[in-house]
Amino acid sequence: MKVAELRQQILREIARAQTAAAERRRSGDTAHDAYAKFIVEVAGPLVLQTVQILRAERLPFQAQTPADSARIASEASADDFVEFVLDTSVRPPRVLGRSSVTVGRHKVAVDEVPISPDKSIAELRDTDLLPFLIPAIGRLAAR
Prior knowledge:
This protein is an alpha+beta fold. The chain is about 50% helix and about 25% strand.
């Protein structure tokens, strides 16, 4: 192979990789912005409402809404919780529902479920979270 041809191929690949990296960064920034809005407007309020209902039923749970997730946590065990988190390991980024429940003395079962994978983060509504949230709360409350 001629040096000029090899050089051309290498330069094209570098340009393609740089363009792809820039697109991934833009996509990630857009997803982070949409996710921050999702936490404030959708998941956060739903978590707070859910915890109010659980507390009214005398179940010991608390709402935790740090900047990067919305979580319903058991006051009895740090390993028992339900939360919504941003998954940036896939393209496009998506919201995951994650639940963790202590099973036995030393084992923790963690489930991660994509929330409405056919929708963008900006399109998610509280009703999209319920198919994951309701059964997960049931598992926590039954402990």
